[in-house]
Amino acid sequence: MIRPGIRPCACSGRSGRGIGAGRSSGSRMPWSHWYVNEQTEQGHMDIESCYQLGALLKERGDIPGAERCFRRIVEQAPDLPDPQHSLGVVLQLQERLVEAIGHYRAAIALDPCFVKAHYNLATALWRSGLYQEAMACARKTIDLDPAHAEAYGLLGQLALLTGDLGHGWDEYEWRWETREGSTKKQDLGRPQWDGSPLAGRTLLIHMEQGRGDMIQFIRYAPLAAATGGRVVVCALRELVALLATVEGIGQVVDRQGPLPEFDVHIPVLSLPRVFGTTLETVPNRIPYLRPDPAKVGAWRQLMPANGRVRVGLVWAGQEKPDPFRSMPLSACVPLLSLPHVDIYSLQMGRGVEEIASLPAGCAIIDHTARISDFADTAALIANLDLVITIDTAVAHLAGALGKQAWTLLPFVPDWRWLLARDDSPWYPTMRLFRQRSPGDWHGVVERVREALGQRLGSPAIHNQRGIELLQAGQPGEAEQAFSAAIALAPDYAEAHSNLGATFDNQKRYREALASYRTALSLRPDFVQALFNMGNVHRELGELAEARRCYEQVRELSPGLLQADLCLAQIWKEERDFARARGCVERVLALRPDDASALHSLGEICQAEERFPEAIEAYQRALAIEPGNVKSQNMLGMVFHLIGSLEAAEECYRKALAAKPDALTVLNNLGAVYQSQGRSSESVAVLRQAVAVDPSYAEAHWNLALSLLASGEYRDGWLEYEWRFKKSNPVPERHFDQPRWDGSPLDGRTILLHCEQGFGDTLQFIRYAPLVAQRGGRVVVECQTPALKRLIAGVAGVSEVIAAGEALPRMDCHAHLLSLPLIFQTTVATIPADVPYLRADPADRAIWRGRMGSAKSLKVGLVWSGRQNLVLNRKRTCNLGTFAPLAAVPNVIFYSLQVGDGAEQAAEAPAGLHLVDLTAHIRDFADTAALIANLDLVITIDTSVAHLAGAMAKPTWVLLPHVADWRWLANREDSPWYPGTRLFRQSVPGDWQGVVRSVASALEQYRRAASPAASGPVFLNAPSPGEANAGVPVTCPKTPPGLAKRPRGLKVGLVWSGRQNKVLNRKRSCPLAAFTPLADVPNVTFYSLQVGSGVDRAAEPPPGMALLDLTGHIHDFEDTAAFVANLDLIITIDTAVAHLAGAMGKPAWVLLPYAADWRWLTTGEDSPWYPGVRLFRQPDLGAWDAVIQAVAEALNERASSGRGEYPPQPRCPGPTRFSEERAWLERSLDGYLRERTLNPSDPVAHLNVGAALGLLGRHREAIPHYRRALELSPEHVQAHLNLAFSLLALGEFAEGWRHHEWRHGMVDSQLPPWPLLQQSDLERHPGGQRLLVHSEQGYGDTIQFIRFIPHLADLGYCVTVTCQPELATLVGSVRGVSRVVPHGESLPVCDLQVLLLSLPYLFGTTLETLPDEVPYLVPRPHQVVLWHSRLCGSSEAGGGQP
């Protein structure tokens, strides 16, 4: 950095002539020439004026003119230090460094304390390559000025350049203090990290300086994360996607947007100092950046597979900070005509225009117009063989990706490239080509051309290139490279063997064998080829041939013990464990500490289910090789199998620390997250695995299970199709006839083939009626004849055959478990009409006769499932576990257990009356007939659970801690089976706790089912005949013998909103204010209060019966189901007001004096909700008047039918102004005075309007907002305040338009898809995917979700992203195809829109407002569940049930 720092010149002889006086108007001579010449002609010079002129010309960029001024002074007054220094500055600006150094030295000789001359001399020496002298001058500068930040910074860069990293990092911290530096320290309000363990804290790493700096030093993020915290990063938008691939980074954000939460922070270039980095400890494990596999594939499609070497080229960088890094493209011409080379441009921005000027025959391929960010550049580089670049961010990117990179450096390089070496400690795959004299790009390019030519003409280089391509996952290109090597040297055995490995990689096994045989014909003792051939035979299942190869390897190379281990694997696969152990023991006898042998021993023990021995073997292997990813992975699998999930997770994490993109480990970590019920984490890590390899079926399969378990059915069913490609695949059926795509069948015959287990068939045969409704004849092929009779009774099924029986004629076919995908099933659209399986009446009568006519409760019992898989056994418990059920009187249990575990029925627990009639069961139709005669079925997760649920039989399913995906998570019911109740383990393996809960519930159920019971409890959901999903639901009539409804009015009560804002608090009312309601007879109050104020429910007003069941509320669907069971809702302005209104439930909303705009300014009704009645404060804070009016109205309603109807109550007017109103009036006076004093200040007008708005005087407020906008048309808050006043007055058209100004606050956080426009609503979208963002509060979402059906009617496929607590309820809205809770990954869409923009887009007015209710509906079984809770609470007399 050059800082001339001109000091005042103490010279005499000042001329009185002004600058430019006497200049000839017709002269073309530069003014500085004329001035200097005139001064010379007159025989004297005004040195001060000439000096000031030189300084002015320099600042204006006229460097030659400035030089003439300063040189003339130096010639006439050589003893003045300032002109000597200034002349040095302008010479250095022209890169005339030798001359500049001379004048700096002259200035210092005249003034030894001239600080700026010392510093600029140091910079000139540095630019001249005289580094030691430059360091001495920088130190002298610091001696003279100990606070000279620039000198410290230069000293730091010189120390780093010369390899003294320790001192360099310390001095480099001075960069923050420089006055002209590009780096400015940010005040982030949190301490800077000092490198101490994070211990759970979040560290923000933020970008500084250039993109290359960020790419180079983000390598420290994994080290920071390893100290025990979370790492988040902010950077330029074009780097966000790329940096997200770095191990250990939890989140990357655009630095132009809001920052995430963090505890400490650090600039990225301060990380090396924190970690004490030296040349010996540079963290250079590569790659630490990874390209997106999908993008890599897309770029590969643009590159012809022609066998030519692909070289990327960058020739120009930015002018700042160093113009000497760049060269003209013309200098690269010698590289552009090399044979067998394709040059791809990686040049962006400056320099791209030079491509058009290339001479004929110099080709460069330019796809850079497709590059949108650095993730694109990384994917392009991944497809190249070599990158040749000047010192730009691309050099760092290629190095960080582990790509071969040749970096071309100027004579004076940047500090990070050090000196006198052709490699980089930062990037192991990088080679450096340096200028040998300043500006000598010709010499650099010639050396690059020579090196590239050597690379192209060597068979060994082509062979090595093939190896690199194969390791990079590009077998097609690798094949061409090995073929090129063979063409140059046909007897090159290694190339033939490697070509075989390439074929092997592509599963072209026969070609691989041919290549290996050729290699062996050239070198009969070529052990590697022989070993690889054994591997291929093993892949082909030719185990005898594989054994022969491995045995020959043992003979040729007895020390290659890997052959013994491969033999051991073969014997293990054939389950000859003794021979397998023998092979491994031979290896261990020779090498007791052979980690591979110990690993193989672990695999053998694992296959034998000798898990403790397997754990010991793997741990011994890891003690020898701690970084062995495979052993860590297998150890994790054993821990997973035995249920030690935390230990399994730890193993997988250690494996990923060593190899972040290890597919099997990522998959297994996702699986262990599944087993822990951590679905969102499972989805994230499995998506990571799929990103690494989009064809990895195991990860897709596990991703399907996690998505389905978390209710994300739309993506889940798509991923579920990978079941046919996983390692243990579901058999896929192939016919000449096409697979059905869901289109109308029009009389055609479709074959539905069942798959997987019996439970799957029983669960998904529900789709057969829907298929038949498409107009076809449905034939079902089931797994066994034992299912035929049962399935034949399903509506819409025309014929049933069993597997192996002759197939009928068909026109198309479908796998049974692909039907949810075809029908686009979501949780909200599950076809849950039960029963869809029924027992034959004749069979049912036969089984009734077998069971007798006992009056006791008849309960079916299943305790065990199939034991063929270890993980399946976790669903199973012993019959003895059910012993607590014996304590429930008047219950007879009937065994439904067949197969594994059935023998336990002979030894039932003491007191458990268990009848076993299963010997009479011939098929599933018999099981169904037995179930039909039971009152209740209690079962673990088996096919019986599905059978009973499909028959609409009350069913209780006992589930492990983390259940199968179809039971979802954290719920007691099943959307698949409305009559089913779920009992889940609270901790893994706790069947005793589950059975205790079941025993308690069974006692309640028995009492409920007893005609003599005095206080029955309604425990099970009604059958579909009583309630259907998707229609308005009321509380079902109480079945005979079950719970009675509480008498009198049931009224829900809400008194407080969130207290996070002052205006919100004005909406709230203390519970004590509701005291007058306690005097109203025949009313039971139920608290609907959650969050703020909920604690007050424990202390209701005297005499008020207030029951609190809110402990059962988990989300808004629970609240909705609760509300559905009430007669009336009384609430202040909260989300509950909107919820009740959207459900069509009578609701009374208590409003403050100046209510929110959506309630308008006057009136007792709401145009948004026909069933809502409004009670408004007559003055600010006058809740007493509101409550009195509510009490009168409630008394009228409660006593209706008695003959007395008091007059319509109204809130009495105020007798005097409230204190709050008086305060607001005073504030308004103050704002009016401020506006008078500052009439041109838009904020003054805005404040007046806001005060008037708070007083409810919206009509008066509007002119003030308009005036604020005249003064500041872009003032967002003025637009919004104007919108609120207009909307409150019902002037919707203009109000919605101003309301759109909130976009400026949220658009930067939206995905990069186009926003829906009004013109889009006039077109036919044809199924375009539209993402609707809910915004602001719960009430806003509830109020405006009413517009979604209108979007669906236009033809949009609508996805809504909303608050997680609303997700299930929003899914019930007609037209919603998918709901994505906030925080989860958003799907790719064609358009997007903010929810509260829909009234504007639809042109909504008071007359066209969509007020059809209900548009939100809870599911029937939830309503029934809450009905039972209300009944139970009324018996108990309040409190928690």
Helices and strands in order:
Elements: H1 31-41, H2 47-59, H3 63-76, H4 81-93, H5 97-110, H6 115-127, H7 131-144, H8 149-161, H9 165-172, E1 202-206, H10 211-217, H11 221-225, E2 230-235, H12 237-243, E3 249-254, E4 264-267, H13 271-274, H14 293-301, E5 309-314, H15 333-336, E6 341-345, H16 374-382, E7 386-390, H17 393-400, E8 405-409, E9 430-434, H18 441-456, H19 459-471, H20 475-488, H21 493-505, H22 509-522, H23 527-539, H24 543-556, H25 562-573, H26 577-590, H27 595-607, H28 611-624, H29 629-641, H30 645-658, H31 663-675, H32 679-692, H33 697-709, H34 713-720, E10 749-753, H35 758-764, H36 768-772, E11 777-782, H37 788-792, E12 797-802, E13 812-815, H38 819-822, H39 841-851, E14 857-862, E15 891-895, E16 914-915, H40 924-932, E17 936-940, H41 943-950, E18 955-959, E19 980-984, H42 991-1009, E20 1049-1054, H43 1062-1067, E21 1083-1087, E22 1106-1108, H44 1116-1124, E23 1128-1132, H45 1135-1142, E24 1147-1151, E25 1172-1176, H46 1183-1198, H47 1219-1237, H48 1242-1254, H49 1258-1271, H50 1276-1288, H51 1292-1299, H52 1303-1306, E26 1329-1333, H53 1338-1344, H54 1348-1354, ...
Parallel strand pairs: 1-2, 1-4, 2-3, 5-6, 5-7, 7-8, 8-9, 10-11, 10-13, 11-12, 14-15, 14-17, 15-16, 17-18, 18-19, 20-21, 20-23, 21-22, 23-24, 24-25, 26-27, 26-29, 27-28
Helix pairs in contact: 2-3, 3-4, 4-5, 4-6, 5-6, 6-7, 6-8, 7-8, 8-9, 10-17, 14-16, 19-20, 19-21, 20-21, 21-22, 21-23, 22-23, 23-24, 24-25, 25-26, 25-27, 26-27, 27-28, 27-29, 28-29, 29-30, 29-31, 30-31, 31-32, 31-33, 32-33, 33-34, 35-41, 39-40, 44-57, 45-53, 47-48, 48-49, 48-50, 49-50, ...
